[in-house]
Specification:
495 residues; alpha+beta; set domain protein methyltransferase, domain 1; 4-stranded antiparallel β-sheet; 18 helices; globular
Length: 495
């Protein structure tokens, strides 16, 4: 669908007509980094602001969240019809707002010839001012995607693309019988909605949604979401809500919000910045399309894990555990590498260790999968604590460390194997854009460094565990039984 666009400068007038207050702060269409890179739009102070002083105040009824979409539907019959038909998509805050964004895009689009679908709202005008060219990985070219080989972003992007297609198919199935949707979106001749529009709505939301203060959920805050990101020690503005005034405020960071107690101030001409999140390099590239210029570490990464195919309890474990099948590798504030996984314990304990599954009938006649550990009932979230309290704790931890280290090594080998292809690639204007090429290169370097450090940390942890009296006794006993202490059978044992 063709998108209607207005220059970002129009947000200044939009703010005036929708009671958004700008306190000596301007909205600018172009903000440049120290290296002269255009970051797109942003906010800039036009006078000195001391700590805690307001920069922007947005009426709460302009904060775009799931609840606000429901409120808008009360006065818009077609929007109400849409969210009732696509009820499964409306259940989550993200897809609820995506439905609303696609609806506003349709109202704005030159392709919309339906006279009954012209209800203009402040949100429709706001959406026109948002960028339509968003450098998120979901818009990478096939050649750019190829450069992600070996990075955790490659798997994340693959899963994201599948999910976006599924969501779009659900939208079509749910709304295909609504007359205006059939006519404007799905008709063979007059329909204009396609997967690219859903991807654009997702990119707009993902790159602009923020965690609202005081547990108010997630939403988009017009004008405030123009602010660019800065690292934890560099950003100079934060959020708060003024219930009495009914506004969402962007204010200068104060001493209470800074760990070192050093208050901030903003001078005339300074860019106003916020911190988007404390995620790792992959998450920043995935959600925002860039990695911090001064980042010295990938911070964290998520690697998938799988239960061995020859594990007789594999299917029962996967069904019962309901855990994300992977491990999080991360760096703490003291620059030490750690790992965290609840799924790995399901992968490395077996029936001979004391894990059992039973299928029981419920009072309704259905069947329910039950688990037990050492003949005692086991809940899905309790295995971790049970294993770490067990007399054979060191054995189970050793199995987990070996499994995770092997996964880290595999990921590192994939990344290293594709390094030559990346180095031999020459950016161009179309297939491989230079900003994307540089972002991918930074991600590759940071992730390889973290994988190397993680492997060394796990090796040290493994060596320490092998000195454990529990492990040494277990190894001596297993030496005569033909069982691999890491939880795998030896190659000549086909049982």
């Amino acid at each position: 669908m063709r998108q209607a666009s207005l220059p970002a400068e129009n947000l200044q007038a939009w703010s005036h007509f929708n009671n958004v207050e700008l306190f000596d702060t301007s909205i600018e269409a172009h903000i440049f980094t120290e290296d002269g890179v255009d970051q797109g739009g942003g906010l800039r102070a036009k006078a000195h602001h001391g700590e805690g002083e307001p920069l922007v105040a947005v009426p709460l009824d302009l904060v775009l969240s799931k609840d606000r979409v429901a409120q808008c539907a009360k006065s818009d019959p077609r929007l109400k019809e849409l969210i009732e038909a696509a009820a499964s998509l409306f259940q989550t805050p993200r897809t609820a707002v995506l439905l609303f964004l696609v609806y506003q895009m349709t109202i704005n689009s030159p392709d919309n010839q339906d006279p009954g679908l012209k209800l203009k709202t402040p949100f429709a005008d706001y959406v026109q001012c948002l960028p339509k060219d968003i450098p998120l990985p979901t818009f990478y070219t096939p050649e750019e995607r190829g450069l992600l080989s070996g990075t955790t972003l490659a798997d994340a992007l693959y899963q994201k693309s599948i999910n976006l297609e599924r969501e779009f198919d659900r939208l079509k199935e749910a709304t295909d019988t609504i007359p205006w949707c059939q006519r404007v979106w799905w008709d063979e001749h007059t329909g204009c909605l396609d997967l690219g529009d859903w991807k654009l709505a997702d990119a707009v939301y993902r790159s602009r949604a923020m965690e609202l203060p005081r547990g108010a959920g997630v939403g988009m805050v017009p004008v405030v979401d123009m602010a660019n990101h800065a690292a934890d020690d560099r950003y100079n503005a934060r959020f708060e809500v003024d219930d009495n005034a009914g506004t969402f405020l962007l204010v200068v960071r104060d001493a209470k919000s800074i760990n070192d107690g050093d208050a901030k101030s903003i001078n005339d001409g300074d860019e106003v910045t916020i911190m988007y999140g404390a995620g790792g390099a992959c998450e920043m590239a995935f959600s925002y399309g860039f990695i911090e210029e001064h980042a010295s570490s990938a911070r964290e990464m998520f690697l998938s894990l799988s239960i061995p195919a020859d594990d007789p309890l594999r299917l029962a474990k996967i069904r019962f555990a309901q855990e994300a099948p992977g491990v999080r590798i991360y760096v703490d504030k003291s620059d030490q590498v750690h790992w965290d996984s609840t799924f790995v314990w399901w992968a490395c304990v077996n029936q001979e260790d004391g894990l059992e599954f039973q299928v029981e009938k419920t009072v309704d006649g259905d069947t329910e999968l039950k688990a037990s550990w050492r003949d005692a009932g086991l809940s899905a979230d309790a295995l971790h604590s049970k294993v770490l309290q067990d007399d054979l704790r060191d054995i189970f931890v050793l199995r987990a460390v070996v499994m995770i280290q092997q996964r880290v090594e595999d990921q590192g080998m994939q990344l290293a194997a594709s390094e030559e292809d990346y180095d031999d690639t020459v950016p161009d204007e179309h297939n491989i854009r230079r900003p994307v090429y540089e972002t991918i290169g930074r991600l590759r370097r940071l992730e390889l460094d973290l994988l190397t450090r993680a492997y060394e940390t796990l090796e040290a942890e493994k060596a320490k565990l092998l000195e454990s009296a529990t492990v040494r006794t277990y190894l001596e006993r297993q030496m005569h039984s033909g069982v691999d202490p890491t939880g795998k059978y030896p190659e000549d044992d086909f049982s």
